[in-house]
UniProtKB/TrEMBL annotation:
Top-level taxon of origin: Bacteria
Residues that span the membrane, as ranges: 21-43, 94-119, 131-151, 163-184, 222-248, 269-291
Pfam families: BPD_transp_1, OppC_N
Record-given protein name: Peptide/nickel transport system permease protein
Family membership: Belongs to the binding-protein-dependent transport system permease family.
Compartments it resides in: Cell membrane
Lineage: Bacteria, Pseudomonadati, Pseudomonadota, Alphaproteobacteria, Rhodobacterales
Amino acid sequence: MDSVKRAFDSDLAWSFRHSPVAILSATVALLLILAAVCAPLIAPYNPFDPASLNLMNGFSRPMEPNAFTGDSFLLGTDDQGRDVLSTILYGMRISLFVGFAAVVFAMIIGVVAGLVAAYAGGRVDAIIMRIADVQLTFPSILVAMLIFGIAKGFTPVHLRDQMAIWVLIISIGLSDWVQFARVVRGAALVEKSKEYVEAAILIGRGPIAIIFRHILPNVLSPVLVIATISLALAIIAEATLSFLGVGAPPTRPSLGTLIRIGQGYLFSGEWWILLFPSLTLLLLALSVNLLGDWLRDALNPKLGD
């Protein structure tokens, strides 16, 4: 109970309670994440089950009975008769999974690279940072598309749909590790010069123990901020790749895939197929991004000045 009370009375908790934007964005993000996680329980239909689809329900307008079957759908249906609400809930699961996994993958690579560069210094530091500088000269979405294309080329044809999600995670992760590496390197250089690191060296601690047991815990605050903001960017990157047709397969549509499908029917009058997945993506990315901005200002008050 004491630990809970200390956490509740902390500066971070106080800042959260006094920030309406943080409370609203956290509430929206939490509701969307819970809806995605609980999709099998709350979705009216399973859009991935062909046996539950009826092509006669295709292009049903929101909350209007279908002219052929009489069925009504809250957000309408798409061209295959899939309930749009159900496809959004299941699509969010894929978008969030790709986003979280890609951020964790990028964070692991970037944190390790930044710590090694800062502690080793010299030629190792120069090589890692020059690789990071070269990657920064290219837009991350182009890097992700390049990596996705190369990885897909090495994947057997019969496994491409099954491996598409994992290839997507690797592609986005490899395109976003630079931010973690640069920030962690800067923070680790400051920590490296402090007395506790020198004391650890004097008592015979090895480099790996010093890096991961002493320096790493003291550079996690900026990593948490970057990870939160990168989550929104990773979700948008996944949606962009899927919209371009190089992301999630149509058999397992993410929000980006749903937007791509809906865009094809926008000018024929079926606006709901595009509108509702787009609004969901907007709310998800915006809420996570605003939460990351608040976390950055709360952990680093000087940045908000």
